[in-house]
Known about the structure:
It is a single chain. Among the domains are: about 5-165, Rossmann fold (3-Layer(aba) Sandwich); about 295-333, no CATH class. It contains nine helices and 13 strands. It has helices at about 10-20, 85-95, 110-120, 140-145, 155-190, 205-220, 270-280, 305-315, 320-330; strands at about 5-10, 25, 30-35, 35-40, 45-50, 75-80, 100-105, 130, 150, 230-235, 240-245, 260, 265. The strands form four sheets. Strands 2-3-4-1-7-8-9 form a seven-stranded mixed beta sheet. A two-stranded antiparallel sheet has the order 5-6. The protein has a two-stranded antiparallel sheet with strand order 10-11. β2 and β3 form a beta hairpin. The longest helix has about 35 residues, at about 155-190. The chain is flat. The two termini are about 30 Å apart.
Amino acid sequence: MSKNLFIAEKPSVAKEFANALKYKMRSMDGYMESEEAIVTWCVGHLVTMSYPDAYDERLKRWSFDTIPFIPQEFKYEVIGSVKKQYTIVSSLLNRPDVETIYVCTDSGREGEYIYRLVEQMAGVQGKKRKRVWIDSQTEEEILRGIKEAKDLGEYDALSDAAYLRAKEDYLMGINFSRVLTLKYGNSVKDYLKRDKGVISVGRVMTCVLGMIVNREREIRSFVKTPFYRVMGNFKLQDKAFSGEWKAVEGSKYYASPMLYKENGFKERGGAEKLVEELTAEPVGVAFVESNEHKKENKNPPLLYNLAELQNDCSKYFKISPDETLRIRLELNE
């Protein structure tokens, strides 16, 4: 009897798929199986790009003579720490009774890349391959994704983009890390008083580090600028309320150099002068310029999906995504 193989990116997601399928799954080593289907998982990346010394042992030593390193054909290898799970997944992908592979890795470029590397390394041939594209791990969404799964070939452009980005990251990291370490590593090592001074460079990490450094410089060079706002207490139809003065278009103060912002003066004297003008006799008649009422129909919020739950727990309770997932699974048992 032929079976469908569902491969997820993480064990927790694989469990959600197994629950949604409603099959009588038996837990095995690295996968779950029933009469109808098999559910397995990666643990993030199982395959990675090989370091330069895999191409030539001499490249293990960092030298200006071997830079830039740009291979004609890129090599890949199984990550040592997850070799056992790779072997399990690889054997399942090539099992004779597996007819259709449902790719259930995260819906995005990185999730696509994770699966494609495994398939490439495992040498999968002659299988139907379907891509499950979902926005959350709810049972309804999982079943919809399986029902509407498209041929994996329709995502080849996404796969190409993922491979290209990985190669870009690799070439930038390998070459620039070596160049800058060779040139400035000793200075960094002496400054930090360490045995080694390696300067890591990456397409993302270097940009993010630059943003952090620039923001820190702004914070350190920040100078407080006091400004003065004009507030008032009012009553309209026996209802008291507070109001704040603002220089709107048409006001003589609009875009005035005396203002720090549209609702504040640079100098205290400017604010006090405005107060005098507003309280001078006769005060004048205040009127309501506009009054808006509108009626809206709002649907009740949807139930949390995992990503939203993790975001809110991180934002409000400083709980990591992994810890949120662990608690959520415990509550589900």
